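User: Structure with pyridoxal-5'-phosphate, tokens only please.
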Amino acid sequence: MAPTMHEWDADTNLFAHSVIGYAIERLQLPKDTRWGAQPADELAAVLAPTISADGVGALEALRVFRDTLMPACRPMDSPMNLAYVPTAPSIAATMFDLVVSASSIFGGAWEAGAGAIAAENQAIRWLADLAGFPATAGGVFVSGGSAANLSALVAARHAHEQRHGRPARWAIAATDEVHASVRAAARVMDVDVVGVPTDEFGRLTGAALEQALRDHDGDGVFAVVATGGTTNAGAIDELDAIADVCAARDLWLHVDGAYGLAALCSDIARHQFRGIERADSFGVDPHKWLFAPYDCAALVYRDPAPAAAAHAQHGSYLDHVDRGEWNPSDYAYHLSRRARGLPLWFSLATYGTAAYTEAVDASIRTTRALADDIAARPRFELLLRPELSVLLFTVDGWTREQYLAWSRERARAGVALVVPTSWRGAPCLRLCLVDPRTRLADVTALLDDLAGTSW
Ligand SMILES: Cc1ncc(COP(=O)(O)O)c(C=O)c1O
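Assistant:
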């Protein structure tokens, strides 16, 4: 008899253990790091028989996933994935993600998910304390930095409108170094972006912000987006001076720290974020540098009330929801919600916050050692001293095509994933370290390889 979808029998037991077995195997990292995208028609051919009136059964579907689909996905958690912003979820966090999946928690409303939400809020509180936010601060876990930026800006606009009314056009102020998602949020919201030039280190300064706001003709600016660790260069904006400008002009300060604000828990980097305690909201993605699996971003508000005023959904079918405690749905653009902050909570509870400090510090120390190494090599030029764990550098005379060719070749060989970017319009290489298992010796060997490559 075919297994039923909701009843537990011997077959179910077998495949359930197979699924857990696969998860445990995958958590120990693929030995072969040549995994990566495959042509759509090849994947379609393998997938063709899987969805049919009768299905193929769990074990066969799992085999297809394990043997074909998973190897067609890049191992983002490989310690030698130094591209984009990689990920390095802790074992406890990933295992607990399975528990969250098994638990069918509706994380949108207190009355449905109180136990989970209380634990998520404890993790939010840890982040709020690291930032020096008041006891009244609060927030919510959303799917990513993009969602956090959008939801924060919607709250900011609503709050501004309550105080100052509606202008002809709304605008935010941001630099070219803000993450692409900030401009995407502006497009979704149909607001303008007042561009502010960055300094030589790629940072937004208070002086440049003040000047840009003075030059901007017309009002309508309601928020400034600063970055606590830019994606491209790892630069930290001048948060304290920016907060002065925002305070003087009654503008909402949102700090996008999707990547970099993880270093608030670092003993050696925390001081660089002075002024974060004055922000109105910030976002940080535990799926980037706080060792949680995808998809998990924390959005924290200094004062959650305006966010709830902007985001809470109302309808006859929702009116019975008890809003007396904490309803995560009220603090971002969403209603149904996975309790995606729980893996972070479990990981913090498992290892302790000191382990987080040590792991983030480890990446920063490795980055600094690599910066010294790069600066000392004759054919290399270090473009910026790293503030966090991103390195930008050039190889004398190399073109974009040469960087790309080297990068593709090393990815194909499963040695490392490093992709070029550009800095001030010129191509360069970029390394981003978030995994404490990334060994200095391995990256040094990669630099040796790069130095020895001639075209
Ligand atoms: C600074 C910054 N903001 C926002 C994002 C977008 O985050 P997500 O991909 O989680 O939506 C990123 C992603 O790298 C980022 O680095």
